[in-house]
Amino acid sequence: MILFTFYFISAYAQITSDSGFYAGFTSSSDFICKDGFQTTATLSFNGQFSNTPQVFLGLELLDFDRGIDYRLSITAITTSNFDVSINCITSIQVFAVQFSWYAIDDQRIQVINNFNMDNPDIQTFNNINPNANQGIISITSLGIQGDIDFSLSISSITPTNVQVSITKVTGKFENLKQLGYQIILGTQEAFFETKTNSFTNPFNSGTLIQQMNRWLFLSFTGFSMNSFLKEKVIRVSLPLSYTLETFDVPFVKCNHLISWIAYQFTTIYKAFECQSVRLSQSNDNQVSTKPSIQIDIQELKIQLVSSYQQLIDKQMNSLNLNVYVKCQNTKKIVSQFLRCQDCAKNKYHKFSNYCNQQIDIVTYFLRYQSAQSFSKELSININSDGITITQVLYNQVKTIEKILEIQIQNQ
Fold first, then answer.
1. Which GO terms of type biological process are on file (predicted)?
2. What's the CA gap between 380 and 305, in Å, rounded?
């Protein structure tokens, strides 16, 4: 008897990025987009993501007249596919909305969705990653009642917020009834050669140089139109180039963005590491009047006895911490301080201090250093039994690194 053993291997490889093009929202017997018509397309990735990715779109073909109001949004994302829905509200038909799509599982990119906003205006959004200090915009939907003339831009990015502005031409802005867009934020490495052009005639990019591990991203950021909008992007692979063209009608003035967006990154953000530890054990006659735990951060000029969140400026690469811990008889203080984030062994400086009648205060003098200039997000958690400091890091995945822990325990 012969025994056969079969090994089943998944047809999908694990991926961290993907891209494609969708032309399914184009006039046909199944797509007559007007009078409340609504449909949803499920687009499959070319592999399996480990985590749910972020997805963003770049419109590349538009075919419709004034009076349309189409609502387009990404309604669901899984590790294997995503759903895009379109809803055409008015009686004016939308003949085509075609787009390139991009999916990425990397926390150095942040996608903010502002789909289908009625009565468009200046908007402010939360910036989750304090080091996502660059960004671009991509229009996804429009509702147009008459002549329009507008453009979108990112007016400011801070470690906590991003603001999007919109030009307002008197007599035309009120005709823009609905507008949807996505904001793509990223770290310094995320975008390369980003430029927004204002075109009044068809455009030919000429030969482009493919950038390693980057997508050629194209999107519209504004329009000035008083009739049909029939514009499309045509990409050419050899030699690499693209054109922005019209068909059947005159060219409509538009603002068009080009950017090379990274889907693989080389910069890895690392936590503060403890370069120096000095301990002092003492007996303090005033110990009964002092808190169980206190931390002084010299560079920030703060003293803390309770939990605290702190965003540290990117130029501040060293911290000197003094941590005072009340040491009660029959207790011990166990501490560890991150010395080498990437080390498999000896990752922490570790200490144990035993309390007795002669020792009622242990003071830690610590110096932390970072070799990188980026905003550091620290969480300081203080309770009656100890103190923990963690640092949030946004790399391919978001991680929380413990850089300090001091615990008061029974002996």
1. cell adhesion
2. 10
Residue 109 has pLDDT above 80, yes or no: yes
Over the stretch 337-353, which tens digit does the pLDDT of each residue have?
999 999 989 999 999 99
Structural domains of the chain, ranges and CATH numbers in brackets:
14-262 (2.60.40.2080), 273-410 (no CATH)
In this prediction, residue 12 carries a pLDDT of: 53
How far is 302 from 300, CA to CA, in rounded Å? Answer: 5
Average pLDDT over residues 28-42: 97
The structure tokens listed for 358 are 């002669």
**48-49 vs 14-15, strand pairing mode:** parallel
Of the candidates 104, 109, 154, 152, the one whose C-alpha atom is nearest the C-alpha of residue 132 is 109
Reduce the DSSP state of residue 287 to 3 states and report it. Answer: helix
Q: Which of 216-220, 285-289, 302-306, 311-315 has the lowest mean pLDDT?
A: 285-289
Q: Measure Cα distances from 44 to 22, 52, 103, 298, 342 in Å.
A: 11, 13, 11, 52, 36
CA atoms within 13 A on the CB side of 234: 12
Q: Which amino acid is at 372?
A: Q
Contact 19, 102 (CB under 8 A): yes
Q: Which residues pair with 310 in a beta bridge?
A: 378
Tell me which residue has tokens 């390369």. 192
Give the confidence band of 8 by pLDDT, cuts at 50, 70, 90. very low
Tokens of 222: 């504004």
- The dihedral over CA atoms of 158, 161, 164, 165, expressed in degrees to the nearest 10, equals -70
CB atoms within 10 A of CB 155: 12
The two structure tokens encoding residue 16: 């961290």
Give yes or no for residue 327 having a pLDDT over 60. Answer: yes
393: nearest Cα among 401, 405, 385: 401
Strand-pairing partners, residue 253, are 224
> What DSSP line would sit under 74-107, residue for residue?
EEEE-SSEEEEEEEE-SSS-EEEEEEEEEEE--T
Q: What pLDDT does 349 receive?
A: 95
Please count the other Cβ atoms lying within 10 Å of the Cβ belonging to residue 365. Answer: 14
What local confidence, expressed as pLDDT, does residue 4 receive?
45
- Beta carbons within 8 Å of 90's beta carbon, 6+ residues apart: 34, 35, 67, 68, 69
- So what's the pLDDT on residue 359? 84
CA-nearest of 216, 159, 153 to 181 is: 153
pLDDT for 188-199, tens place per residue? 999 999 999 999
